[in-house]
Amino acid sequence: MTVRGILCDLDGVVYRGEVACPGAIVALLAAQAAGVRVLFMTNNASRTPEEVAAQITGLGLPTDPSQVFTASQVAARVLADRRASGELVLGKTQVVLAVGGEGVGAALTDVGLPWRSPTQLRTGVAAGSGETVGVVVQGYGQDVGVRDLSEAAYALAAGASWIATNDDATLPTPRGLAVGNGSLVAAVARATDKAPEVVGKPYSPAYEQAIAALGLPIQDCLMIGDRLDTDIAGAAAIGLTSALVLTGVSTREEAQAQPEQTRPDHIAATIGDLDFLWSQP
């Protein structure tokens, strides 16, 4: 195949923390120079597209916020579509509870949904605002604490629905694997005996929205990721060609041990080793 569009994960693929992964920047610059459309697709929902684009640009790869697609945006668009269709109805005093980093609330603002952070909700309840929670949207945030998770638990117990941006148990950093959103979601699930609807990778809403954003046929696109359980599994589920790079979580041995139907189509040490897929002969 000749790749015309790339869905590219970020953590463990383009960078780990503030450090670029080996060969990633040069390879993606070359892909774009060859006319390939690149959409950075991340389950890390803590930051806004503007913040993520600024980081990628700072590493030497000029990136527009429109090239960044976060799991927070997936969740917000799912809710916006349901509200437009009448499937989701928020009363006059109902809001969405945004648990996570700044990116969660920003995505909800972009689609016109009223939301409160756990702190704002807690303050409003104490002041007698009368606001209640219709939906909890839970995404990753470095500063998410027990009180934030408790607000989610209170809302779910009162009947709110629950969307998780993703359920990745860990997050790759330069020091190793940190606690990810899936671990925080698990805490709320344990406390409430409920399970969320998850919309980020590997679930279909993330891939369907991302392919639509690229504006290309799925057979012309490639998913590049570092996790078998999210990036690669989700691509396989919708018939999207995938490549595992070994700069993040999953290993070559783990990939080769996968059943054929969920095995990545390509395994590469770095993104640069995939350049044969978009280089012109």
Structure description:
The protein is α/β, with parallel strands linked by helices. The chain has 10 helices and 15 strands. The chain has helices at 24-33, 49-58, 71-85, 102-110, 118-126, 146-157, 181-192, 204-214, 228-238, 252-256, and strands at 5-8, 15-16, 19-20, 37-42, 68-70, 94-99, 115-116, 132-138, 161-164, 170-173, 176-179, 197-198, 221-225, 241-245, 266-268. The strands form 4 sheets. A 6-stranded parallel β-sheet has the order 5-4-1-13-14-15, sandwiched between helices. Strands 7-6-8-9-12 form a 5-stranded parallel β-sheet, sandwiched between helices. The chain has a two-stranded antiparallel sheet with strand order 2-3. Strand 14, helix 10 and strand 15 (266-268) form a beta-alpha-beta unit. Helix 3 (71-85) packs parallel to helix 4, helix 5 (118-126) crosses helix 6 and helix 6 crosses helix 7 (181-192). The longest helix has 15 residues, at 71-85. It is elongated, with a radius of gyration of 19 Å. The two termini are 12 Å apart. The model has no long low-confidence stretch (mean pLDDT 95).
